[in-house]
């Protein structure tokens, strides 16, 4: 038996006993047999820096393919058309993309625009009868998120959020270890998420387009991470905000927030979200029997880390490739990742962000 086949069979055995330790995308990636199932045909909306990264990563997908674009900049559309062989009939702008409804060559739209636009764009895509993948944060508050969930449900389309870490092999392995009890009872999580933001005129520092500052953009990784590392939903939050540059970080744009979350088991999380410190990308979790630390923990990788049992050695595979193959498996075959990536999952994070903003403003402990 070839070593490749042995590898695939080992993964398959693992996939039966521990169904989600490796994502199906990895199984397909490792397979020597050509994939003959359905391909998720995706149009990307918003051809900015992250959209560009996703498009590149999709070149290596087995089950998903970039087939269309939605952009307000004709020159970008032309460039993408020639780079990715995208036909004219699959190109739209922000005024005419509702016509996607009549385009059978597009199954899903991946919205990679500023946060404040996600809700309305999601609603338009859903009403055009196409599945929606929205970048994080799904909207700018929980109410928007819930509306997105409701509209997609009514339109009978899927709403998925770009939680790429839910497909990342080391993260998946750690979550599986926690589920298997390897850490014992989880007790404490520490998440640090931040970078020093540049250009003061960018949309990330414009409240209408961003919905907030560092918390919406990067702090959300510590929130989502606390939930998947501890395996519980928080019941309270407290938060403290620090602002050293009120000109750059205007009213409603958080520069730095420290926040704490309490969980039903008694576990607690202590996190930092910031736009004014570099190299903050670290998760630490300790339980009654062991610990895990990951640094970097949510960057584009490779993710690095170790547990009380030794280093994490799972392979690095481009996150967005795994994510898009995994989302195709979810849409076509109902294969769920180890932690959901659906709209409801997004709303959970948005509710916590709303509570953190309230706690920072009032100084009160906010119950969820
Ligand atoms: P970006 O500024 O590089 O790109 C945004 C794109 O939206 C640009 O092409 C811009 O032209 C377009 N756009 C459309 N309408 C706009 C408007 N009214 N104002 C400004 N731009 C407009 O931003 P980005 O870094 O690509 O982020 C886009 C989204 O992706 C955000 O929601 C962000 O949180 C998310 N993101 C996710 C990850 C991840 O790892 N999952 C990483 C980066 C960004």
Automatic annotation (TrEMBL):
<comment type="similarity">
    <text>Belongs to the Gfo/Idh/MocA family.</text>
</comment>
<dbReference type="GO" id="GO:0016491">
    <property type="term" value="F:oxidoreductase activity"/>
</dbReference>
<dbReference type="Pfam" id="PF22725">
    <property type="entry name" value="GFO_IDH_MocA_C3"/>
</dbReference>
<dbReference type="InterPro" id="IPR055170">
    <property type="entry name" value="GFO_IDH_MocA-like_dom"/>
</dbReference>
<dbReference type="InterPro" id="IPR008354">
    <property type="entry name" value="Glc-Fru_OxRdtase_bac"/>
</dbReference>
<protein>
    <submittedName>
        <fullName>Predicted dehydrogenase</fullName>
    </submittedName>
</protein>
<dbReference type="Pfam" id="PF01408">
    <property type="entry name" value="GFO_IDH_MocA"/>
</dbReference>
<feature type="domain" description="GFO/IDH/MocA-like oxidoreductase">
    <location>
        <begin position="174"/>
        <end position="292"/>
    </location>
</feature>
<dbReference type="InterPro" id="IPR036291">
    <property type="entry name" value="NAD(P)-bd_dom_sf"/>
</dbReference>
<keyword id="KW-0560">Oxidoreductase</keyword>
<feature type="domain" description="Gfo/Idh/MocA-like oxidoreductase N-terminal">
    <location>
        <begin position="40"/>
        <end position="163"/>
    </location>
</feature>
<dbReference type="GO" id="GO:0000166">
    <property type="term" value="F:nucleotide binding"/>
</dbReference>
<dbReference type="InterPro" id="IPR050984">
    <property type="entry name" value="Gfo/Idh/MocA_domain"/>
</dbReference>
<dbReference type="InterPro" id="IPR000683">
    <property type="entry name" value="Gfo/Idh/MocA-like_OxRdtase_N"/>
</dbReference>
